[in-house]
Amino acid sequence: MTLKLYGEQVSTHLFLGTASYPSPQLLRDAVEASGAEIVTVSLRRESAKQRAGQRFWELIKELGVRVLPNTAGCYSVKEAVTTAQMARELFDTDWLKLEVIANPDTLQPDLFGLVEAARILVKDGFKVFPYTTEDLGAGERLIEAGCELLMPWGAPIGSGQGLANPNALKSMRAYFPGIPLVIDAGIGAPSHAAQAMELGYDAILLNTAVAKAENPAQMALAFAKAIEAGQLAFQAGLIEPRDMATPSTPVAGTPFFKLDNAS
Amino acid sequence: MQIVVNGEPTRTGAQTLGELCAALGFSDAKVATAVNGNFVAKRNRDDIRLAENDSIEIVTPRQGG
Fold this sequence. Notes:
Structural class of chain B: mainly beta
Strand content of chain A: 15-25%
Number of strands of chain B: 5
Helix content of chain B: 10-25%
Mean pLDDT of chain A: 95
Shape of chain B: globular
Distance between the termini of chain B: 38 Å
Oligomer: heterodimer
Largest sheet of chain B: 5 strands, mixed
Strand order of the largest sheet of chain B: 2-1-5-3-4
Shape of chain A: globular
C-alpha cells in the first residue's frame, strides 16, 4: 500500500536517518538494504579546510533518494526557522522535519515552540513534518497550522526504548484517523517498529538502531521486514486479547468427552 | 574588520557576505548562509554588507536523524 505525504506517493514505510554510521560505505549499504526512499539529513557549520559536507552531499546524490532535512539541535523558534530556510536552499526541497527541542537530556519537543515555528514555516511554503509527542492537543494545533502529517516520538531520541506509551499512541491513531502518522525516535528493535505498524501507524523514522548495530545493512533489512509484517498484520485485523484461554481446537467430538471437562 | 564566522572570531577585509564566502573558499561550495541569525539566500550574498561584530553562519549538508 502506498503512503501519501503532502500529495506525493511513497511506497516504503521506513524513513532512515543518515547519522552515526561507522563509515559512508556502511551508510550506503544500510540505505540500499532498507529500501528507504526518504532519508533524513541535517546541516552543520562547514570548515573551509575539511569540506566534509561536500563529500557527504556527493554520497547522498549517488543514493538517489529523497532527502528530508531536519532542524536538529534547535532550541528556539528563531533558530529552527533560520535553519529551515538554510536547509531549503541547500537541499532544494520544501520538505522539513521540524524539531524544536525543549531539553538537552530528554530531547523532547518544545510543543509550544513547535506549533509556533510550524505556523511560520507553513506560511513560508514549507511542508512541515513535525517531531512531536503523543499529545492530542498539540497534534490538533499542528494540523491547524497546516501540517498534513504528525511524527510523534516512540521514546526519547537515540534511547532505543521502543514505544514508551503505547496506549497514548493508540489513542492518537484513533483520534487522527485520516492523518499520516510516523513514529519518529526511540525505536530500538524491529519488534518495536512492528508493534507501531500493528497499531496502524503509517511509517517509522529511525536512525540509531540501524547505524549503531553491529551490522547496519542487515539490521536495516530486519526493520524493513518487521515494518512490512506489522503493516500486513494491521490490515489483516488483529484479534482482541482475552483474559482467559479459549480452545482453538474444536471441542465438539473430542474423544472421551465428558460434560465436566467442557466447563 | 572583526566578525564571527561559525562561532570563531575572524578578521576579514571582505565588505560583503559574497566576498567573505569567496575569501574563505566557498564560492563553488554547496553552502547556505545566515547573518546575525537571519537567513541570506545565495542570490543576495553580494548585496549584504558586513559590519563590525556581525555573526555569520556558513553551513553545509551533514548526516542527520
